[in-house]
Amino acid sequence: MSPFSIASTLFSLLSSVSSSTSTPSTASSGVTTGSATDFSSALRVASIKAQSVSDLLGSVSGSSSASDGLNFLSGGSAAGGSDPLSQFGMSTTTQGLSASGRNLSLYDPESAYKMMSLINNADVTYKAQYSELSAMDSAVAGMQQAGQTLGTTSTAMDSASVKAQLQTFADNYNGWIKRFEPTVQSNGVLAGTQAAQVSLHELEQSVENPFNGAANGIRGLQDIGFNIDPNTHLASLDTNKLDAALATNAQGVVNTIDQFSANFAKSAELLDSANNFIPNQLANLNGAINYIGNNTASLQAEFGSGDPAKPSAQIAKALAAYNQMTSS
User: Confidence band (pLDDT; 50, 70, 90) for 96?
Assistant: First the structure.
Protein backbone atom coordinates (compact mmCIF):
# COMPACT_ATOMS: atom_id res chain seq x y z
CA MET A 1 0.00 0.00 0.00
CA SER A 2 1.40 3.41 -0.97
CA PRO A 3 1.98 6.08 1.69
CA PHE A 4 -0.84 8.20 0.31
CA SER A 5 -3.17 5.19 0.45
CA ILE A 6 -2.10 4.69 4.05
CA ALA A 7 -2.73 8.37 4.76
CA SER A 8 -6.15 8.22 3.13
CA THR A 9 -7.14 5.16 5.16
CA LEU A 10 -5.79 6.77 8.31
CA PHE A 11 -7.90 9.87 7.63
CA SER A 12 -11.04 7.72 7.40
CA LEU A 13 -10.14 5.86 10.59
CA LEU A 14 -9.38 9.00 12.57
CA SER A 15 -12.62 10.58 11.42
CA SER A 16 -14.43 8.03 13.60
CA VAL A 17 -12.30 9.10 16.55
CA SER A 18 -12.70 12.82 15.93
CA SER A 19 -16.47 12.50 15.48
CA SER A 20 -16.74 12.34 19.25
CA THR A 21 -14.09 14.96 20.00
CA SER A 22 -14.33 18.64 19.41
CA THR A 23 -12.03 20.61 21.70
CA PRO A 24 -8.36 20.67 20.73
CA SER A 25 -5.49 21.42 23.08
CA THR A 26 -2.23 22.91 21.95
CA ALA A 27 1.11 21.34 22.74
CA SER A 28 4.15 23.44 23.48
CA SER A 29 5.37 22.85 19.95
CA GLY A 30 2.33 24.70 18.63
CA VAL A 31 0.84 21.53 17.16
CA THR A 32 -2.84 20.83 17.86
CA THR A 33 -3.14 17.55 19.72
CA GLY A 34 -6.56 17.41 21.37
CA SER A 35 -8.44 16.25 18.26
CA ALA A 36 -7.86 14.93 14.79
CA THR A 37 -9.30 18.03 13.10
CA ASP A 38 -6.04 19.63 11.94
CA PHE A 39 -4.53 16.26 11.18
CA SER A 40 -7.53 15.27 9.08
CA SER A 41 -7.35 18.57 7.20
CA ALA A 42 -3.68 17.99 6.48
CA LEU A 43 -4.43 14.56 5.09
CA ARG A 44 -7.17 15.98 2.89
CA VAL A 45 -4.78 18.58 1.46
CA ALA A 46 -2.07 15.96 0.97
CA SER A 47 -4.47 13.66 -0.88
CA ILE A 48 -5.65 16.49 -3.18
CA LYS A 49 -2.07 17.53 -3.93
CA ALA A 50 -1.11 13.92 -4.55
CA GLN A 51 -3.90 13.49 -7.08
CA SER A 52 -2.96 16.71 -8.89
CA VAL A 53 0.69 15.68 -9.09
CA SER A 54 -0.37 12.21 -10.22
CA ASP A 55 -2.39 13.64 -13.11
CA LEU A 56 0.48 15.90 -14.14
CA LEU A 57 3.06 13.16 -14.02
CA GLY A 58 0.77 10.78 -15.85
CA SER A 59 0.49 13.23 -18.74
CA VAL A 60 4.25 13.88 -18.77
CA SER A 61 5.10 10.19 -18.84
CA GLY A 62 2.33 9.29 -21.30
CA SER A 63 0.62 7.08 -18.74
CA SER A 64 -3.11 7.12 -18.10
CA SER A 65 -2.69 5.54 -14.69
CA ALA A 66 -2.57 7.88 -11.66
CA SER A 67 -0.83 5.18 -9.64
CA ASP A 68 1.98 5.04 -12.21
CA GLY A 69 2.48 8.77 -11.84
CA LEU A 70 2.75 8.39 -8.06
CA ASN A 71 5.43 5.72 -8.22
CA PHE A 72 8.10 8.38 -7.77
CA LEU A 73 6.76 9.14 -4.28
CA SER A 74 7.67 5.70 -3.02
CA GLY A 75 11.01 5.52 -4.73
CA GLY A 76 9.79 3.58 -7.78
CA SER A 77 9.92 4.67 -11.40
CA ALA A 78 7.17 5.98 -13.60
CA ALA A 79 5.76 4.32 -16.66
CA GLY A 80 8.43 3.69 -19.23
CA GLY A 81 11.01 2.91 -16.53
CA SER A 82 12.22 6.47 -15.98
CA ASP A 83 11.66 9.24 -13.51
CA PRO A 84 9.24 11.61 -15.32
CA LEU A 85 10.68 14.79 -13.80
CA SER A 86 14.14 13.77 -14.95
CA GLN A 87 12.99 15.13 -18.34
CA PHE A 88 13.18 18.56 -16.70
CA GLY A 89 16.51 17.87 -15.04
CA MET A 90 14.96 17.12 -11.64
CA SER A 91 15.18 13.75 -9.95
CA THR A 92 12.33 12.76 -7.63
CA THR A 93 13.58 9.39 -6.43
CA THR A 94 13.52 9.20 -2.64
CA GLN A 95 16.98 8.52 -1.32
CA GLY A 96 16.14 8.88 2.38
CA LEU A 97 15.54 11.80 4.73
CA SER A 98 17.76 14.79 5.24
CA ALA A 99 19.59 15.41 8.50
CA SER A 100 16.67 17.60 9.57
CA GLY A 101 14.20 14.76 9.00
CA ARG A 102 12.69 16.24 5.82
CA ASN A 103 12.09 14.38 2.59
CA LEU A 104 13.67 16.88 0.21
CA SER A 105 12.51 15.00 -2.87
CA LEU A 106 8.94 16.13 -2.19
CA TYR A 107 7.53 19.31 -3.74
CA ASP A 108 6.74 20.74 -0.28
CA PRO A 109 8.84 18.87 2.31
CA GLU A 110 7.97 21.31 5.11
CA SER A 111 4.20 20.76 4.85
CA ALA A 112 4.75 17.00 4.75
CA TYR A 113 6.99 17.27 7.82
CA LYS A 114 4.32 19.23 9.71
CA MET A 115 1.70 16.63 8.81
CA MET A 116 3.95 13.92 10.25
CA SER A 117 4.35 16.02 13.40
CA LEU A 118 0.55 15.96 13.73
CA ILE A 119 0.53 12.19 13.34
CA ASN A 120 3.21 11.83 16.02
CA ASN A 121 1.16 13.96 18.40
CA ALA A 122 -2.05 12.12 17.54
CA ASP A 123 -0.40 8.82 18.40
CA VAL A 124 0.48 10.04 21.90
CA THR A 125 -2.84 11.80 22.48
CA TYR A 126 -4.96 8.81 21.49
CA LYS A 127 -2.98 6.48 23.74
CA ALA A 128 -3.47 8.86 26.67
CA GLN A 129 -7.20 9.12 25.93
CA TYR A 130 -7.51 5.35 25.70
CA SER A 131 -5.93 5.00 29.13
CA GLU A 132 -8.16 7.60 30.76
CA LEU A 133 -11.33 6.34 29.11
CA SER A 134 -10.50 2.79 30.20
CA ALA A 135 -10.19 4.05 33.78
CA MET A 136 -13.56 5.80 33.41
CA ASP A 137 -15.04 2.58 32.05
CA SER A 138 -13.99 0.74 35.22
CA ALA A 139 -15.29 3.59 37.39
CA VAL A 140 -18.71 3.47 35.69
CA ALA A 141 -18.95 -0.18 36.67
CA GLY A 142 -18.11 0.88 40.23
CA MET A 143 -20.86 3.50 40.19
CA GLN A 144 -23.33 0.90 38.96
CA GLN A 145 -22.43 -1.25 41.97
CA ALA A 146 -22.79 1.74 44.32
CA GLY A 147 -26.28 2.41 42.96
CA GLN A 148 -27.31 -1.20 43.39
CA THR A 149 -26.04 -1.27 46.97
CA LEU A 150 -28.17 1.75 47.82
CA GLY A 151 -31.20 -0.33 46.84
CA THR A 152 -30.85 -2.43 50.02
CA THR A 153 -32.44 0.39 52.07
CA SER A 154 -35.60 -0.74 53.88
CA THR A 155 -38.15 0.49 56.41
CA ALA A 156 -36.66 -1.96 58.92
CA MET A 157 -33.56 0.24 59.08
CA ASP A 158 -33.33 3.07 61.60
CA SER A 159 -32.71 6.67 60.61
CA ALA A 160 -28.97 6.46 61.24
CA SER A 161 -28.63 3.46 58.92
CA VAL A 162 -30.55 5.18 56.12
CA LYS A 163 -28.31 8.23 56.52
CA ALA A 164 -25.22 6.03 56.40
CA GLN A 165 -26.43 4.38 53.16
CA LEU A 166 -27.02 7.72 51.47
CA GLN A 167 -23.75 9.21 52.74
CA THR A 168 -21.77 6.24 51.44
CA PHE A 169 -23.34 6.71 48.03
CA ALA A 170 -22.58 10.46 48.16
CA ASP A 171 -18.94 9.70 48.95
CA ASN A 172 -18.69 7.28 46.02
CA TYR A 173 -20.35 9.76 43.69
CA ASN A 174 -18.07 12.59 44.78
CA GLY A 175 -15.03 10.41 44.23
CA TRP A 176 -16.24 9.81 40.67
CA ILE A 177 -16.73 13.54 40.02
CA LYS A 178 -13.37 14.56 41.50
CA ARG A 179 -11.52 11.94 39.50
CA PHE A 180 -13.05 12.44 36.06
CA GLU A 181 -14.62 15.88 35.77
CA PRO A 182 -11.18 17.56 35.44
CA THR A 183 -10.35 15.28 32.52
CA VAL A 184 -13.11 16.76 30.33
CA GLN A 185 -12.32 20.38 31.13
CA SER A 186 -10.11 22.59 28.96
CA ASN A 187 -6.66 20.99 28.50
CA GLY A 188 -7.88 17.80 30.19
CA VAL A 189 -6.92 14.48 28.61
CA LEU A 190 -10.54 13.80 27.60
CA ALA A 191 -11.45 17.39 26.69
CA GLY A 192 -14.03 17.30 23.92
CA THR A 193 -14.48 13.53 24.18
CA GLN A 194 -18.22 12.94 23.92
CA ALA A 195 -18.15 9.52 25.60
CA ALA A 196 -16.63 11.02 28.75
CA GLN A 197 -18.83 14.11 28.76
CA VAL A 198 -22.01 12.09 28.31
CA SER A 199 -21.04 9.68 31.10
CA LEU A 200 -20.58 12.47 33.62
CA HIS A 201 -23.76 14.26 32.49
CA GLU A 202 -25.97 11.17 32.48
CA LEU A 203 -25.11 10.07 36.00
CA GLU A 204 -25.62 13.59 37.36
CA GLN A 205 -28.99 13.82 35.62
CA SER A 206 -29.95 10.48 37.12
CA VAL A 207 -29.25 11.80 40.62
CA GLU A 208 -31.29 14.94 39.94
CA ASN A 209 -34.24 13.15 38.31
CA PRO A 210 -37.34 14.70 39.98
CA PHE A 211 -39.60 11.77 39.06
CA ASN A 212 -38.04 9.31 41.50
CA GLY A 213 -40.61 8.89 44.28
CA ALA A 214 -43.39 10.71 42.43
CA ALA A 215 -45.87 7.96 43.22
CA ASN A 216 -45.21 8.59 46.91
CA GLY A 217 -45.55 12.36 46.77
CA ILE A 218 -41.78 12.92 46.70
CA ARG A 219 -39.99 14.82 43.94
CA GLY A 220 -36.66 13.10 43.67
CA LEU A 221 -33.78 12.78 46.09
CA GLN A 222 -33.76 16.55 46.61
CA ASP A 223 -36.96 16.23 48.67
CA ILE A 224 -35.20 13.91 51.10
CA GLY A 225 -32.08 16.05 51.44
CA PHE A 226 -29.77 14.65 48.77
CA ASN A 227 -28.50 17.49 46.59
CA ILE A 228 -25.99 18.22 43.80
CA ASP A 229 -24.15 21.55 44.01
CA PRO A 230 -24.64 23.35 40.64
CA ASN A 231 -21.09 24.75 40.72
CA THR A 232 -18.96 21.91 42.06
CA HIS A 233 -21.32 19.10 40.92
CA LEU A 234 -20.60 17.38 44.23
CA ALA A 235 -23.31 15.64 46.27
CA SER A 236 -24.26 16.51 49.83
CA LEU A 237 -26.77 15.17 52.33
CA ASP A 238 -29.01 17.43 54.43
CA THR A 239 -29.64 15.12 57.39
CA ASN A 240 -32.25 17.42 58.94
CA LYS A 241 -34.34 17.33 55.79
CA LEU A 242 -33.92 13.53 55.61
CA ASP A 243 -35.04 13.13 59.24
CA ALA A 244 -38.15 15.23 58.56
CA ALA A 245 -39.02 13.14 55.49
CA LEU A 246 -38.52 9.87 57.39
CA ALA A 247 -40.70 11.11 60.24
CA THR A 248 -43.64 11.90 57.97
CA ASN A 249 -43.30 9.39 55.13
CA ALA A 250 -40.75 6.67 55.87
CA GLN A 251 -42.16 4.26 53.31
CA GLY A 252 -42.14 6.96 50.65
CA VAL A 253 -38.48 7.75 51.41
CA VAL A 254 -37.48 4.10 51.13
CA ASN A 255 -39.46 3.67 47.90
CA THR A 256 -37.82 6.79 46.46
CA ILE A 257 -34.34 5.52 47.30
CA ASP A 258 -35.13 2.09 45.84
CA GLN A 259 -36.48 3.60 42.62
CA PHE A 260 -33.48 5.88 42.29
CA SER A 261 -31.15 2.96 42.95
CA ALA A 262 -32.59 0.94 40.08
CA ASN A 263 -32.62 3.88 37.65
CA PHE A 264 -29.09 5.00 38.49
CA ALA A 265 -27.65 1.50 38.15
CA LYS A 266 -29.41 1.13 34.79
CA SER A 267 -27.95 4.43 33.54
CA ALA A 268 -24.45 3.31 34.47
CA GLU A 269 -24.99 -0.08 32.85
CA LEU A 270 -26.12 1.48 29.57
CA LEU A 271 -23.04 3.71 29.37
CA ASP A 272 -20.85 0.64 29.46
CA SER A 273 -23.01 -1.62 27.30
CA ALA A 274 -21.92 -2.97 23.91
CA ASN A 275 -22.16 -0.47 21.04
CA ASN A 276 -22.68 2.42 23.42
CA PHE A 277 -20.61 5.52 24.15
CA ILE A 278 -17.59 4.24 26.07
CA PRO A 279 -17.05 0.88 24.29
CA ASN A 280 -17.45 2.53 20.87
CA GLN A 281 -14.95 5.28 21.62
CA LEU A 282 -12.45 2.81 23.07
CA ALA A 283 -12.74 0.73 19.89
CA ASN A 284 -12.21 3.81 17.70
CA LEU A 285 -9.17 4.88 19.68
CA ASN A 286 -7.69 1.39 19.64
CA GLY A 287 -8.15 1.15 15.86
CA ALA A 288 -6.42 4.49 15.32
CA ILE A 289 -3.56 3.60 17.66
CA ASN A 290 -2.95 0.27 15.94
CA TYR A 291 -3.11 1.79 12.47
CA ILE A 292 -0.63 4.53 13.28
CA GLY A 293 1.68 1.99 14.91
CA ASN A 294 1.57 -0.32 11.90
CA ASN A 295 2.22 2.43 9.36
CA THR A 296 4.43 4.98 11.11
CA ALA A 297 7.60 3.77 9.39
CA SER A 298 6.07 4.08 5.92
CA LEU A 299 4.58 7.48 6.64
CA GLN A 300 7.80 8.87 8.10
CA ALA A 301 9.85 7.54 5.20
CA GLU A 302 7.61 9.44 2.80
CA PHE A 303 6.68 12.61 4.66
CA GLY A 304 9.65 13.04 6.98
CA SER A 305 10.19 12.15 10.61
CA GLY A 306 8.12 15.01 12.01
CA ASP A 307 8.72 16.62 15.39
CA PRO A 308 8.42 14.25 18.33
CA ALA A 309 5.29 14.69 20.43
CA LYS A 310 5.55 17.11 23.35
CA PRO A 311 2.68 16.04 25.61
CA SER A 312 1.35 18.09 28.50
CA ALA A 313 1.90 16.80 32.04
CA GLN A 314 -1.62 15.30 32.12
CA ILE A 315 -1.21 13.53 28.79
CA ALA A 316 2.27 12.30 29.76
CA LYS A 317 0.84 10.78 32.95
CA ALA A 318 -1.98 9.05 31.06
CA LEU A 319 0.47 7.89 28.40
CA ALA A 320 2.65 6.27 31.09
CA ALA A 321 -0.46 4.47 32.37
CA TYR A 322 -1.22 3.29 28.82
CA ASN A 323 2.31 1.97 28.36
CA GLN A 324 2.10 0.15 31.67
CA MET A 325 -1.31 -1.26 30.76
CA THR A 326 -0.18 -2.56 27.37
CA SER A 327 3.18 -3.91 28.55
CA SER A 328 1.65 -6.40 30.96
Answer: confident
